[in-house]
Specification:
By secondary structure, the chain is mainly α. It is built from eleven helices and seven strands. The strands form three sheets. Strands 1-3-2 form a three-stranded antiparallel β-sheet. Strand 4 (146-151) and strand 5 form a beta hairpin. The longest helix has 27 residues, at 187-213. The protein is globular.
Length: 272
Amino acid sequence: MEEKKQQPVLEPLGSAKEVEQAIEAILYAAGYPVRFDKLAEVLGVGVKDVKTMVRDLQKKFGEDETYHGIQLLVYPSTCQLATKEKYAPYIREALGIRRGGNLSASSMEVLAVVAYNQPVTRSFVDLVRGVDSSYAVNSLLDKGLIEAAGRLDAPGRPMLYVTTDKFLRVFGINSLDELPATEALSVAAQAEQLNMNAEIGENAESAEKTEEEAPVEPKEYAEAIDAEETDVIFENGAEPLPAEAETAAEEEPESDGSEKIAAELPPEEEPE
């Protein structure tokens, strides 16, 4: 299905080259990431065409022979003109810009948890880190490195957080796919295991409590045979042998058949 072009706010430009120049002018004047759909709406072209033109401009700014001191950063839904990193010291010195402070260790931990597992709730971050993360989350929100992206459909409807395009720009990557693989931050599995262990513990406690509260069903027992055995209980209705039979069985020696053979032989004659 062919993409519909946006209705232009202004009169459409005459050629693709003019559109590219307009994109460059808008990004230069903005100084912050601009959405592709906004550019398409203003310039009266399709979003797909805008993305194609932006990537072409990105290649032109990246060519060494052009000697540009700026670069075009492209993100999934936005793009931005920015200075090249190697000229940052000269820019700060010329404009009297003080170097910004580095992120604290706690903020870096929270940012890593969000980046590798987004969208996440603050309680998830707390669970992974093992401490309260309210201050670090608010700090990252103020710096624009993370943002709210809706609410989780759960009791209390906690806020969900994701990283922003500024996060990508600050760390010099174009998408989350470029994040380095790491085993140390398979935190989703760790948190899931913690939740599972907690749930298993709760179920075990519940089962023990239920077992303690449940009434014990009486087993079927046979009545004692006589007064001498009133202190003996036989389970499952098994009847014991009568006392006489037990006594006889204890006193009577086992026979090996020699008595029967002796009885069948004739009596021996006594010598005269």
